Amino acid sequence: MTASTIDAPARGEQQLRELAAAGARELGAELSSEGTAPAVGEADHIAAIRWVAENFPKARIAVACSMADAVLPALVADQVPGVDVLFLETGYHFPETEGTKEAVKVMLDVNVVDVMPKLTVAEQDEEHGKDLFSVDPAACCRMRKVEPLAEALEGYDVWFTGVRRDESPTRTNAPMVAFDETHKIVKVNPMVRWSLDELTDYSNSNGLPMNPLLSDGYLSIGCAPCTRRVAPGEDPRAGRWAGTDKIECGIHL
């Protein structure tokens, strides 16, 4: 599906910066000087989504979803029905991921938007060499994820992500609300303090679509060629780009 259009006045960068700062203060999302987070409130995620719904009426709002699970789209749709859910259609996804996306389309009140790269896999192979992901994974991620998402986010005021602090060392200090300097919009991470167990328990308790790979050792699911099962005790994202020093695709850096 295509992105939904909403007739809302455009907000300037300074206004978005001020709103993001106000949201961080209101939700108590800032880390203390000791680098520790406040105690987790049971409804932190609900408060964060409600803050967006109240402060961005009729605005363009997006949810980024890798289709590992559908918890974030479900939570946002409860307060923002019909919200755009952006799925990066890289051409390299597991069949289980595509199946989860189809389930989300049917079960949730959302508008799933396939975000496409400029080149098909075949065109990329022809132009940059076959299986670029194995030679230069950073370039592959840039062309198939980072650049398409940047283009897709143009015109949105807010984007929700499922970033969690327990996923990897690079995400330990992720805020709940911040101004995204790359995309110049407000970035909200409602589930930043959740654990993987809390996420799966919530999904199971509420009958939400869940990628079956999560129960098969794939604790962080990306493109099939660059994702492996995670060994016991490893960070959830240890299975991404295994054997390289790459741990992020570039979207959240």
Structure description:
It is found in: Cytoplasm. One of its GO terms (molecular function) is adenylyl-sulfate reductase (thioredoxin) activity. Its cofactor is [4Fe-4S] cluster. The active site is at 249 (nucleophile). Pathway: Sulfur metabolism; hydrogen sulfide biosynthesis; sulfite from sulfate. This protein has 253 residues and is of the alpha/beta class. It starts with 12 loop residues before the first helix and ends in a 48-residue tail after the last helix. The relative contact order is 0.17. It has one domain (13-27, 39-211): 3-Layer(aba) Sandwich (Rossmann fold). It has helices spanning 13-26, 44-55, 71-79, 95-107, 121-128, 132-135, 137-152, 196-205, and strands at residues 61-64, 83-88, 110-115, 158-160, 177-180, 185-188. It contains 8 helices and 6 strands, in the order H-H-E-H-E-H-E-H-H-H-E-E-E-H. The protein has a 6-stranded mixed sheet. Residues 29-42 have low confidence and may be disordered. The longest helix is centred in the middle third of the chain and has 16 residues, at 137-152.
State the gist of this model.
With 253 residues, the chain is an alpha/beta fold. The chain is 34% helix and 11% strand. The chain has a single domain, classed as 3-Layer(aba) Sandwich (Rossmann fold), CATH 3.40.50.
